[in-house]
Amino acid sequence: MGMTMTQKILASHAGLESVKSGQLILVNLDLVLGNDITSPVAIREFNKLGKDCVFDKDKVTMVMDHFAPNKDIKAAEQCKMCREFCDEKEVTNFYDVGQMGIEHALLPEKGLVVAGDTVIGADSHTCTYGALGAFSTGVGSTDMACGMAIGKAWFKVPSAIKFVLKGKLNKYVSGKDVILHIIGKIGVDGALYRSMEFTGEGLASLSMSDRLCIANMAIEAGAKNGIFEVDDITLDYIKEHSTKEPKIFKADDDAEYDEVIEINLSEIKSTVAFPHLPENARTFDEIGDIKIDQVVIGSCTNGRLEDLIASAEIMKGKKVAKGVRAIIIPATQEIYLKAMEMGLLKIFIESGAVVSTPTCGPCLGGHMGILAKGERAVATTNRNFVGRMGHPESEVYLASPEVAAASAITGKISSPEEVM
Amino acid sequence: MKYTGSVIKYGDNVDTDVIIPARYLNTIDKKELASHCMEDLDTTFVSRVKNGDIMVAGQNFGCGSSREHAPIAIKESGISLVIAKSFARIFYRNSINIGLGIVECPEAVDEISEGDVIEADMDNGIIYNKTTGKEYKTAPFPEFVQKIIENGGLINSIAEGIIK
Q1: Which of A126, A240, B24, B152 has the greatest CB tally within 10 Å of its CB?
Q2: What residues contact residue A366 under an 8 Å CB cut-off, 6+ apart?
Q3: A196 within 8 A of A163, measured Cβ to Cβ
Q4: Among B residues 37-96, those touching chain A with beta carbons less than 8 Å apart
Q5: How confident is the model at residue B143, as a pLDDT?
Q6: What ipTM did this prediction achieve?
Q7: Closest chain B C-alpha to A198 CA, distance in angstroms
Q8: Phi and psi (nearest 5°) for A369?
């Protein structure tokens, strides 16, 4: 029986000829990731193992992005704990304020992940790197600790849903609309424990930015990982960013899938996920007048340069509506710099938005844009659970950068066409 | 492994943001995390949970973030076992890794009510509702899971050479 793309990567990292879904295997890891929230718990657990060093100082990475720049004394202590650990263990890829970006935007940019890799990260959105043709998945701090110690993790081999993409996205529609549409269709546990594999002729029209955004939210459908078939777009991106050699794994022709779902990209419209689940997807014919208080454009889902370019195109020469706080967060220092050089920051600032240093901040209700009771935000982030961005009685509407930018201008949830 | 406790029951898609809101993730202190457990979903949980109580919930329990702080907060609050229709995968893994008992049993969840007293025998996969007198079969904990839970988690089990 043939294997899926994910199964092939896992088999190769377990030293096995083949694997089948449900099988428990121990795999070698190419990278172990943590952030300033999950790493402190992992370090506490790691220290109980009595190991002097990590399994490979080049294959462990920590990114101080969630509550950094330090939001309070406790957050500062957590970052300090990570900093001291990485210093002592000589961890090569420790990213602190000044070098750091939002982890899942940063690692591909730094070339730390390439096609064919197996990656675990103590952050649920670690599934992002599936866009590069890697197997990558979120785990907890204990798994991170064991990964740092022995460079291995156990997995139950997942079955998969295959998404065959065709057609081409319309103007003002992007990767975020695709993934919100898919989650709306299959639900927040629609891919529970399974892989989401993306293939088909439609891939050719999806940029790396679109793909990273789609893979990023595979977890919001409950998936173990989301993964894209590797093509020239992937290989060009990897060549530009990494010195590591990519390994291409393609699903066998006779690979077995639990389900095959066809998605016609040209039929996808701007989509908004209503509170309090990402599966509450609606298109503008079902939306109506919803007044908002805040807009956040950023996060590991949509803080990339392409997202800022799309937002700036919509906001250029217009003003943020009175009563709306628009917060723009470039996901990495490099994106920030490029946005500055391209004049995007000027467009945002002149429109009345603020531009922040890279941070996960408001996405998880940490800092830099918390909502008060009863307030509503349109955000390009990935979760709209109760209390996600602040008060338990606040509301988050998930949308694309195009929709978020348009909404900032009108002060209500708006499609890009309304302002363009 | 045997558990006895009264039930605190929730619905579907209980996410890690309500189990432990991110605003409290600036600490790894277990007691402090437990003091905010379930806060955004149920402000009464912390004051009414008793040692040994059993949490019962619907589908996709623990969806969302990978934060291990979520099962840590639940375990530290006194909950001995979580029975749900299904679990989000990272939460499931994290719970076993930290030694929190966790089991899927949709039929039992449908018929268990808040406050019922449950006896769960996880060596044999039997959930008995003392209040209603009904019994449910589920998969017993595999031996390695029992060992991890008995030893307070994966790391302790590795450090003590119980899991190699």
Answers
A1: A126
A2: A66, A67, A71, A359, A360, B22, B23, B25
A3: yes
A4: 40-41, 59-60, 63-69, 71-72, 86, 88-90, 93-94
A5: 85
A6: 0.95
A7: 21
A8: 135, 55
